[in-house]
User: Which sequence fits this backbone?
């Protein structure tokens, strides 16, 4: 049976409320993001692909930008809803 560990034991640090809100505020007003959408953001910058399976080191998972998967999901969703967008 796997032992549960505390946040401290896992080496995870929590953000304060202002730290947690900073990226959303930055995204709302940053001229760097004008005309850009569909990006993953972290710590007030555009995130890059994560390194390996340890997503605690930052970045986004490789499957997050699965273009073929997104197209299949769009098609299936339209079929299930009886819509054509």
Assistant:
């Amino acid at each position: 049976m796997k032992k549960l560990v505390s946040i401290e034991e896992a080496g995870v640090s929590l953000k304060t409320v202002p730290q947690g809100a900073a990226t959303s505020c930055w995204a709302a007003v940053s001229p760097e993001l004008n005309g850009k959408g569909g990006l993953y953001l972290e710590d007030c910058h555009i995130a890059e692909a994560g390194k390996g399976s340890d997503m605690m080191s930052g970045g986004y998972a490789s499957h997050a930008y699965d273009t073929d998967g997104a197209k299949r999901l769009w098609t299936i969703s339209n079929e299930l809803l009886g819509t054509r967008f």
User: Anything to note?
Assistant: Residues 77 and 83 are 8 Å apart (CA to CA).
